[in-house]
Amino acid sequence: MISYKIADLVAILDCKVKGEISSEEVSGLTPFFQSKEDTVTFAENEKFLKKLHETKARFIIVPDIPLPDDLGKTYLVVNGNPRELMPKILGFFKRKAKPFSKLIEDSAQFGENVNIAPNAYIGHDVVLGDNVTIYPNATIGEGVTIGDNTIIYSNAVVREFCKIGKNCVLNPGCIIGGDGFGFVKIGSNNTKIEQIGAVELEDFVEVGSNSTIDRGAIGNTIIKKYTKIDNLVQVAHNVIIGENSLIISQVGISGSTEIGNNVTLAGQSGVAGHVKIGNNVMIGGRGAVTGNVLDNQVLTGFPLVPLKDDLKIRASLKKLPEALKKIKELEKLIK
């Protein structure tokens, strides 16, 4: 199991320590609300600083402000905004990849009846279950696990440390675990934030051709069982999509969005970041989700309205030119 020395992190951040260091090592960096006791998290703004008691992490990276000392936490106090230190923080916790040496690395492990085509790359410490099929020119990165009966078609990429469940299908050209679009302004420059999470696809998930599912910045992007994703879909970092959902072609889902079970996002609909969509929701084609959506709704349009209302609005728009003409005639009569 990988561990990181707190003393090394303190040195890199050049920060002050407030509280006891009860352990010299931690297991990693985790999201604020999904933390474990032996991990580090950070509270960059008032939203998190008000809820320090809700995170399980023992170590919290914080700005230099008054902090409660009765929570049993150890604070790593930095100068300025912790977000500006994100490149250093995530760079410290990013796992170092092993160098490539051959098409199928010696440490890879295979179940029974695995079928690997020529020119596929199988990385270090990969674990393939029974009856896995990998087509030509696919790339399976270091530390990936793939469950039984899964098919990976040509030119698909599963990047390092991602997890693919049983009976999944990755169609040609899809990318699982590419870097999320994470940058922070430092001075006047856009500076990359390393993406140290991964992607987890549960069982019976299918991903269409040329669709992309980005790895989490911290923590994982998760697609739950029996969800099907069409071609040309973008799923950003740290998104969670529930079970039995359908994501249709050209949908874009922004980062840290949570989507419930049995949700359908029709073609070219878009979802803003950090919103929640409930269970049994259908968003019509080109619908724009900019806020939370409750369970059991059929919505469409921009702004979103119930489908029946949207149909009435569209029907009314056809009558608008004639209505404007009548209004102008009435204005003349009034004058």
Verbal overview:
- With 335 residues, the protein is of the alpha/beta class.
- Helices cover 14% and strands 27% of the residues.
- It folds into two domains: 90 residues, MurE/MurF, N-terminal domain (Udp-n-acetylmuramoylalanyl-d-glutamate--2,6- Diaminopimelate Ligase, Chain: A, domain 1, 3-Layer(aba) Sandwich); 198 residues, Hexapeptide repeat proteins (UDP N-Acetylglucosamine Acyltransferase, domain 1, 3 Solenoid), CATH 2.160.10.
- The protein is flat and about 85 Å long.
- The N and C termini lie far apart (83 Å).
Number of strands: 37
CATH topology of the largest domain: UDP N-Acetylglucosamine Acyltransferase, domain 1
CATH class value of the largest domain: Mainly Beta
Question: Poorly predicted ranges (pLDDT <50, ≥5 residues)?
Answer: none
Shape: flat
Total helix count? Answer: 4
> What oligomeric state do these chains adopt?
single chain
Q: How helix-rich are the residues, as a percent range?
A: 10-25%
Q: CATH superfamily membership of the largest domain, which one?
A: Hexapeptide repeat proteins
Q: What structural category do the secondary elements indicate?
A: alpha/beta
Mean pLDDT over all positions: 94
Mind sketching the topology for me?
Blueprint: E1 4-5, H1 6-13, E2 16-18, E3 25-26, E4 40-42, H2 46-49, E5 59-63, E6 74-78, H3 86-93, E7 109-110, E8 115-116, E9 121-122, E10 127-128, E11 133-134, E12 139-140, E13 145-146, E14 151-152, E15 157-158, E16 163-164, E17 169-170, E18 175-178, E19 183-186, E20 189-192, E21 199-201, E22 206-207, E23 212-214, E24 221-223, E25 228-229, E26 234-235, E27 240-241, E28 246-247, E29 252-253, E30 258-259, E31 264-265, E32 270-271, E33 276-277, E34 282-283, E35 288-289, E36 298-300, E37 305-306, H4 307-334
